[in-house]
Write a structure and sequence with these properties.
S-adenosyl-L-methionine binds at residues 20-22, 40, 66, 85, 92. Strands 1, 2, 3, 4, 5, 6, 7 and 8 form an 8-stranded mixed β-sheet that branches. This protein folds into 2 domains: 11-89 and 202-293, Vaccinia Virus protein VP39 (Rossmann fold); 114-199, DNA polymerase, domain 1 (Orthogonal Bundle), CATH 1.10.150. Strand 2 (35-40), helix 2 (43-53) and strand 3 (59-63) form a beta-alpha-beta unit. The longest helix is centred in the C-terminal third of the chain and has 15 residues, at 202-216. The protein is α/β, with parallel strands linked by helices. The protein contains 11 helices and 8 strands. The structure holds S-adenosylmethionine (SAM). S-adenosylmethionine (SAM) binds next to helix 1 and strand 2.
């Protein structure tokens, strides 16, 4: 919230409404001339936004990916701040029917937008073992990716894998047993994260969303992104660096000339403090990065 530096009469976009915790904070700082644009891929989040904020004349609501924020008419006049609080919301994880959780048996779906693209079950039913292994390795850094992918392909030859509990048990059955006395995460944690990131095109959306936010920000406007794992944070960090710092020189090539920064990084990676973690344990792995659009930028 502090990173966004909300001005009472500004226009702000919360691209990840969730259940509106941040949106409520922004609205509280806005005056009667301010505007708040709300987006989420998830129809349930959008329904909550409509119920809670639909009657507020300062608020506009759009269901969709923040990757497409530039197509929204409400954005055309420019933005003074954009917030992305990435990943899944607690209600998405808590409701078994959404299929995100290895701890709660439900249909193997994992889509934030249940009307878009393939569910996790549909993808796992048709992808090759190599493709599955690549996803588990790239998005989950799962060292047993090939072994798990082989097990999935063997199991689905007998019957489709349709439930989260089934997939979690299958993964657990092929993983090495944890060493006695060591506290290990659930053996399906990395695989579920990887499949979720793939099914929701999370990293591609993030890259497109950062570009779109950058284009929509007015000079002095701020971009604030909260990431929950290193793959996301690396994309955000590189995005800000590539627009705020000239590329490092190469001895054999002439100095890169004509670099004009369009962003200024506001501090580095910021972690939640103890108080925030106590209030919301999920904040433990959160990293916030903030950047400001520069006056000279086109
Ligand atoms: C961590 S929660 C946000 C929580 C929110 N800041 C709050 O205070 O309640 C992430 C939300 O972003 C949504 N989401 C994730 N990626 C998205 C994207 N590319 N476009 C739009 N919404 C997205 C998810 O559906 C989820 O509701």
């Amino acid at each position: 919230m502090e990173g966004l530096r909300v001005h009472a009469e500004g226009t702000y976009l919360d691209g990840t409404f969730g259940r509106g915790g941040h949106a409520r904070g922004v609205l509280g700082a806005l005056g009667s001339g301010g505007r708040l644009l709300l987006m989420d891929k998830d129809p349930e989040a959008i329904a909550v936004a409509g119920r809670e904020f639909g009657a507020d004349p300062r608020v506009s609501i759009m269901r969709g990916s923040f990757a497409d924020l530039g197509r929204w008419d409400a954005v055309a006049a420019g933005l003074d701040g954009v917030l992305f609080d990435l990943g899944v919301s607690s209600p998405q994880l808590d409701v078994a029917e959404r299929g995100f959780s290895f701890g709660k048996d439900g249909p193997l779906d994992m889509r934030m937008d249940p009307d878009a693209g393939e569910s996790a079950a549909e993808w796992l039913a048709r992808a090759s073992a190599d493709e599955i292994a690549d996803v588990l390795w790239t998005y989950g850094e799962e060292r047993m990716s090939r072994r798990i992918a082989r097990a999935i392909v063997e199991r689905r030859a007998q019957a489709p894998i349709a439930r989260t509990g089934e997939l979690a048990a299958l993964i657990a059955s092929v993983m090495p047993k944890p060493r006695a006395g060591r506290h290990e995460i659930h053996p399906a944690t990395r695989s579920f994260q990887a499949i979720r990131i793939h099914v929701n095109r999370e990293l591609a959306d993030l890259e497109a969303g950062l570009d779109a936010a950058h284009a929509a920000l007015r000079p002095g406007g701020r971009l604030a992104v909260i990431s929950f794992h290193s793959l996301e944070d690396r994309i955000v960090k590189r995005f800000i660096a590539s627009r705020s710092k000239a590329p490092a020189g190469n001895r054999r090539l002439p100095e890169a000339t004509g670099f004009v920064p369009t962003l200024r990084a506001v501090g580095g990676a910021q972690k939640a403090d103890a108080e925030e973690v106590a209030a919301n344990p999920r904040a433990r792995s959160a990293v916030l990065r903030v950047a400001e659009k520069l006056e000279a930028a086109a």
